[in-house]
Structure formats: structure tokens, C-alpha cells
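Render this sequence as a predicted structure.
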Amino acid sequence: MTYGQELYSTPKIIEKALKEPEEETLISAKKLVFCGCGTSYYMAGACAKLCKNQNRSASAVDAIELISGAVIPDPGSTYVFISRSGESEETVQAMRICKKSGAHTFYLGCTKDSRIEKECDKARVLPYGNETIVLESFSFYVQLTAALACCGLVIDKNLSNLISEAFSKADELYKNVFTKIPFSRIISLASPFYRNLNREMMLKDGEITRLPVEDWGVLEFRHGPRCWCNETTLIHIMSENATAGIDAAVAKELVSYGCPVIWYGENAPKGS
């Protein structure tokens, strides 16, 4: 299976994640703390923010913060450990620290009989979310969707169709525009809500293209190294409604430098 084949199987796999039954342990928890390392930590942040959007008390913590003692476990919280393999050493250690504190622990991943699954109080294994190649594709979105379903959050049941539509738009854009541009650098910019997804996208960009890649908040980039940008710098901008005006101003400035800009959001600025 190629990376493309795996990526384009996302809508079908997402349908399985949407059918995951609710987990009473997570629904009844007073506070959810999502934990992981690397890309799983980025997912943890996305889970926490989406839970807050539906009035659930939630936060995210990097596994290394628990190991270092920078963050002390809260025995009254339920910790959700996200790890595709269930064997990530930092996440294993963080889980053991939380168990020792008396906190309830839950594993969400794609591998049966892993150390984290065996040691957590409860677990939900999603074998259909495990990639067959090294580059991650749908796993991020599968685990994210399944986590929200387990927590009892409202999810758009049309999600798989929306993803299919997004792929079609991306294909058209790639074939008609981006095959004609010799990129030398890719920079991903995002408003606060999308920063975790933005970091994930930066890693994928680097793995796939082997080009220099970076991620920034939209405004910190405006006050930073925008002088690097030219007609060979591909810019992603993920905007949310609350900051759309500010984000659009940055997009217009980058377009004026000759940068090819992809705008993710409503009311795309002229030239993007």
C-alpha cells in the first residue's frame, strides 16, 4: 500500500471511528486529561480543545512534563493516554506516574496487548487505525474521532463525506496549481485553535517532501521571519472565525511577496 492509498482510505476508516460506542468512564469523568508524546501530544491538545467546545472539563499534557515533574498528576482526573503502538516509552512512564498518584487511567490506541493497554484501568483499541507504512496518514484523525465518540461528544455524522470533498478540492488544487511551482520551503501558520493540528501538518510536510518546514502562529510569524518568504515558499494558513480578520491581513501581505498561499477557512483573501 502506498502513502496515497492509505491517506485516501481515511473516509472509509473514519466511518468505523464514528461508530465507536461511548465509554462510561470518560463520560462520567469530572475532568479529562489527554496525554501523549510527539504527534500523539498534538492530538491530545486537539481532543482537549474539542471537549471544551462542548463544555467538558479537559486539558492536555505532554508525557515528558509528567516525567520531569513539571506537571503533577491530579488524582481526581481521568488521564487518557494516546499512543498508536501502546509502547511509547515516555507515555508508558507518564501513565505509571499517574497510576501511582491514584488517578484513573485509560488507553486509546491501535495495538492490542501493549504495555499501556495492560496497565491502564480501561482501554479502547482501534486496530483499524494502525497504518501499514511508516508515514502517518489517517491515524491522527481516526484516533481523534474515536476519542470524541468515546467521550460522548456530538460529531458531524457527515464527516467522512466532508473529508472526501476535501480530498477532491486538494487534488484539483494540486494538479492545476502546485505541480507548476518549484517549492524550496513550506511554512504552516495557524490561529490558536489549530496550532496542534498545524504542528502535525508541519511534520507530515517534512516527511513527505523532505523540504525545510516550519510551523508558527499567524501573528508571531508576522512579527518574525516573514522576510524568508518568496515565490518558492508554500504557505498554509489555518484560520478560525475569531481571528479571521487578522489572519487575512497576514495572508494578503504574504501574497504580495509572491508566495503561493493556501487558505483553510471561509472568505479566502484575494490571491490565495
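Summary. The chain has a mean pLDDT of 91. The two ends are 33 Å apart (CA to CA).
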